[in-house]
Design a protein that fits this description.
two-stranded antiparallel sheet, globular, alpha+beta, 119 residues
Length: 119
Amino acid sequence: MLKACSRCGKIHEYNYKCNKGKVYKHNDIDKLRSTRAWTIKSIEIRELSKYLCAVCLDEGIINYEDIEVHHIERLQDRPDLLLENDNLICLCKKHHKLADNNKLDKDYLNELVRKRDER
């Protein structure tokens, strides 16, 4: 059964929950990511990585699209590592999602960070 969505105006399945326009409450981790220090560090890591995905580069692929900075040790577990270069790596959206879902080994990511810092 279908219904018209009051949030986005599209037609969805009856049980579908649309998040269009939903206001999210910021937690402490989100507040850390919205600081000026994090913004500066994020740019610094992107420049160190030459705006390339470290995993793609390791596979011989030059990918500079949709680059994000990933915390190898999650901020929820280690907020003290927010600005530590050794815990930060540039990844494309695809590899960032894999890393967030623990599909990329942390030791592998740490090795890529060491390679980046040697260059």
